[in-house]
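Q: What structure does this chain adopt?
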Amino acid sequence: MQKRYERIHDSVSTIKQITESVREVINAREEKLSDAEVLELIEEFVLHDSMTAIYPYKEKRNIIQGAFNATRKELGILQPYADYGDVSEIMVNGLDGIFIERKGKIERIDQKFDNYEELEEIIRRLVAKVHKEINELNPIVDARMEDGSRIHAVYKNVALNGPILSIRKFPEKRIAMEELLDLGTITKECASFLECLVKAGYNIFISGGTSSGKTTFLNVLSNYIPKDEGVIVIEDSAELQITGVENIVRMESKQANMQGKGEVSIRQLIKASLRMRPDRIIVGEVRGAEVLDMVQAMNTGHDGSLSTGHGNSPEGMLTRLEAMFLTASDFPVEAVRNQISEAIDIIVHMARMPDKSRKVLEVVEIEGYKDGEFIINPLFSYKMGKGLESTGRNLKNVAKLKMKGIELK
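A:
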């Protein structure tokens, strides 16, 4: 293992030296070189230079590709993993802590950066493409790239083990409910039940921990929104892929610039959306004061609204919503709980299991609020060894189903 690591380290150093040599040649040329010309130049260096004579042919091809990525591709040594269709996330923790998530499983890769400057240059190139910057005065950045992927970076003056970079990729092909059924994320019975509720206009909140599949599940549920309805999608960083609705408006929040100006918050966007006459409002994730505006929108005729939030259980999600609401207003606690119980009809709770799969663990109905407690009606529950099962309880609030003439499947 040590010899293998040393060989990899040597090839990485070789790639860096070749890259520097190629860049010197490119900078000395007056005309701009095409990708094909740069690749040919790198091949000349690798195949005829004594520095690479010790490597077998296959390793030389890897060095050529690595040098080309470092020269022409914005992600450098990370580029091959960004190009793999089955890699969903790239996580860089300093110089030699590089991990990828492939098909739900996290693995460490045998690559490393030679120095902080190399990694920082990649981060700066990425954020510059979306007109943002990162430095010691602005050491944290969160951004959506042109291809829809999301990056999060932390500068070395904050991250003690060096610059941190996380790249979350999203599948080009939109996931459908059939795929979640095949993966065992949800049962056909529960999927049919939720389909009816979405079509009927129930307000549904999806809770769960980090990487539990909330956004993916919200995407899937949006497939059931009637095509003739007007939908406004509001996100911190655009991740949702809602394509089946024709009358759709998409809005994304904006961070303040270096002068502290230009911020557009989720809360401002929700308020603006109410003037656009939407049938439904979809908020990618509720995480702060915007919960007040989201709850009020749900309570003022925008039935069928959808959102997600971080919570460890349906009850925990309600407690978090309450805390966020109280932070944003000076409403009495009883009034806040009443508003939340009237706004949210259904909570779908998801989790990432020990085997890295994502599962729907609970589907509950929020019946109301009485005597200081939320009244929760469990409809589906996950049991180890059995999976997701109906609790045998019936949905209590069926008014929306009757109004739309929809019968539960």
